[in-house]
Fold this protein.
Amino acid sequence: MTNGAVRASAEKGKIGHFFRTLGKQYQLMIMSVPMLLYVFLFNYGPLWGWLTAFQDYQPRKGLAGSKWVGLKNFEFLFTHNTFFLAVRNTFAMSLINLVFGTVSSILLAVLLNEVRNRAFKRTVQTVTYLPHFLSMVIVAGMAQNIFSGRGTLNEILMTLGLTNSPILFLGEGKYFWWLIGVINVWKEVGWGTIIYIAAMTSIDPSLYEAAAIDGAGRFQRILHVTLPGIKSTFMVLLIMNIGHLMEAGFELQYLLRSGLVMDYSDTIDIFALNYSFGTANPHYAYGTAAGMFKSIVGIILLLGANRIARALDEETLI
Amino acid sequence: MTVISATKKAKRRDVVFPIVNTIILILLMIITLYPVLNTVAISFNDSLDALKGGIGIWPRIFSADSYKELITDPAIYRAFWVSLWKTVITTILNLFFTSMLSYALSRKEYVLRKFITTVLVLTMYINAGMIPNYLLVSRFLKLGNTFWVYIIPTMFSCFNMIVIRTYIVGLPEALVESARIDGAGDIRTFFQIILPLCLPVMATVALFVAVGAWNSWFDTYLYCGSKKNLYTLQYLLKMKLASTQASSNAANTSADALANSVKVAPITIRASITVVSTVPILVVYPFLQKYFVTGMALGSVKG
């Protein structure tokens, strides 16, 4: 027998073995294959829709009947100021969310980690988890109550004499990104601590003792024991979040936007939504092209962040 | 001398820090709770008076009118039931399929384990986008304007699968082995041995799924906008929000002018729907806190 034949028969044996094992595992297949098919249909199936980004897509004619137009839809995106603004707003708000969110959660986790009274710690945790469970519609309504012209914040500012006339926080573009950042911190700061606190509890207590013997004060212990202890968690989350940098979340922006702040509130998703559903003559293809751009940039960012982390010899995701 | 004063200083700092820390955390709790209590106060306030603004955490003129309005409005009543059924059915089906899948993917001997896991994990990063999803669900599968559009497209979440799988992997392997020796197949092993032990993690994931289903409004907006009898509570809230938005952007409109333009101020109705739709979650989540904290930590670290 030649080498090739040996290899071929070994391959054959391997494949045969694979199917024999699979046959024995038919129960595991019953339990998992339906969901696999589901994911192919609902998560990978829509990728077919990306083809419409290269068409003058008409819903009535469908994918097969619509005219192919090459890169014309992308040309439209890249030559229109609204799309440029949408990309800018998406990046700005997700960056603000990422920085504010990470810093505030780590800060709160450190403060909670220093609390000795367990009942008090638990109370703070329960209370700060609460907003995570509120829907965005409810949060947007509360934001309106707080930030509107007649809202609580203006009342406080006016009582303190910091301003004479109410400031329209929701009606001026320059405040919008920061408001979204603040509201997201309010909603998620407590929830974000869960994973950091978990990382902190796995720090070896003898490290703290050793630091104390060496004369480290509380702040030095935080700086040299606690923060290094959560570094790998921080890195993994950072890579994941960089992969989601194109996701500014769109519900809150959509609910709080108005014609006055459009240039600052409209993200890529809202751009897609406006062109697909906001007009009498829907341009689904623009929306698809915008979404495709978003996904591809997101994947590039994720792989890039992962590669940088690997180069720095840090924890990686993939 | 200097050494002594230094340790004294350090000691003083150790007294100061816990106090400052406690004050910061109490302030944080106040900031967290204020908007919530404010909403409750508005919901119990007189409707016209509420338009003037300036209500703190206690109603200025007490009135339960908005709740009466809520009970008698058939649209709200119907939306409540739609929301409830949507949540219950989504949670049950989602847990059933996800837990079964998680068990299969926890079995190391399963030859398709790696392949299926990779395919599933990639869904966290590959997303076709809003419009292709819409075209699939609405044009291709024709689920628009049906109740099932609330259930079917939200059946799978990779994160929840990872949370359950991590929990199952942590259970003693001997459980499965002894079941196997007794002649039980995987399906039976899962339902009779593993599933009852998964109660804590199932409660956690049930909370995540139920909250997600209960809180979503965009699905109604996208797929059922023209079908009034499929409106959910959150969608009604969204519509009420839009109707109060115009007034919130105008600073100096007189409250009376606003009051004349609407019969019952949407702001109090909105507040009362908010309260009614939030209370079920607020009652449940503190009891599940212990479980979801472990679930979250395990799931995200290992995922």
Notes: The CA atoms of residues 103 and 165 of chain B lie 6 Å apart. The mean pLDDT of chain B is 85. The longest helix of chain B spans residues 2-43.
